[in-house]
Amino acid sequence: MTKTGLFISFEGIDGAGKSTHIEGLAAAFKAQGRQVTLTREPGGTPLAEKLRELVLHDAMDPLTEALLVFAARRDHLNQVIEPALARGDVVLCDRFTDATFAYQGGGRGFDLDVLRQLEQWVQGRAEGLRQPDVTVWFELDPAIAAERLASARVPDRFEAQPVAFFQQVSGGYAARAEVDAQRFVRLNAAQTREAVWQQLHQQFVQRGLLSAQ
Ligand code: TYD
């Protein structure tokens, strides 16, 4: 197994069931002797967590929303993600820029060209755009996700959206996965938790990122 840093993001509509699998993957990497940095977006630093609160709970126009998620991302990259990758950690990040293209771009219908420019500003480096090495996409029918969310906690500004919004978010993810297919591990999240984990683990073994055990 290589000891260079590895950047993995996790995506999907609300209710797709990412959380337990992120923890499972963290445990699997640790069991193989890797240092793991577990983080999330928007958030991951004190400043970015404050921005998260605003984005999830305060009304604002779509450009403000896009600027805040990218501002949070900039701080997160500088303070947490880049230093962790430089140390050789496995960085497991619950959502990253694909979520912005899916939620602000697909869901809100915000201008994708502006998002691409912000992406360049925030993730641009001499070596090229910083992107995850692997993005795990939990694909789920928005109607099933809505059923799962109905029994969950008090919804935030996104979770409170109708099924049609999440159909557009899914379309946003599909468009990103289409242009960058190699980066995406696509999982059928409608299966049982155990079956989803089996798919996920198998894909990481196939890519040489985890050993078979
Ligand atoms: P989520 O990751 O689902 O966290 P939790 O499990 O604690 O609810 O919540 C983050 C929300 O923020 C989610 O609804 C998607 C949204 N979001 C955006 O709209 N744009 C972004 O760029 C990111 C990272 C998240």
Describe this structure as you would to a colleague.
There is one protein chain. The protein has 213 residues and is of the alpha/beta class. The chain has a single domain (6-206), classed as P-loop containing nucleotide triphosphate hydrolases (Rossmann fold). It is 54% helix and 13% strand. It has 8 helices and 5 strands. It has a 5-stranded parallel β-sheet with strand order 2-3-1-4-5, with helices on both faces. α2 (46-57) runs antiparallel to α3 and α3 (62-87) runs parallel beside α5 (112-123). The two termini are 13 Å apart. The protein binds thymidine-5'-diphosphate. Thymidine-5'-diphosphate (TYD) binds at residues 14, 41-42, 69, 94-95, 99-100, 103-104, 158.
Provide the CATH topology: Rossmann fold
* Shape annotation: globular
Instruction: List how many beta strands DSSP finds.
Output: 5
What's the pLDDT, averaged over the residues?
A: 96
Q: Round the Cα radius of gyration to an integer and report it.
A: 17 Å
Measured between the Cα atoms of the first and last residue, the distance is: 13 Å
Parts with pLDDT < 50 across at least 5 consecutive residues: none
Query: Biggest sheet: strands, sense, closure?
Result: 5 strands, parallel
Helical residues, percent: 40-55%
User: What is the second-level CATH architecture?
Assistant: 3-Layer(aba) Sandwich
What is the string of SSEs from the N terminus onward?
EHEHHEHHEHHEH
Report the bound ligands by name, code or SMILES.
thymidine-5'-diphosphate
How many DSSP H or I helices?
8
Domain count: 1
Q: Classify the beta-strand content into a percent band.
A: 5-15%
CATH class, anyone?
Alpha Beta
Query: Strands of the largest sheet, in order across it?
Result: 2-3-1-4-5
Please identify which CATH superfamily we are dealing with. P-loop containing nucleotide triphosphate hydrolases
Structural class: alpha/beta
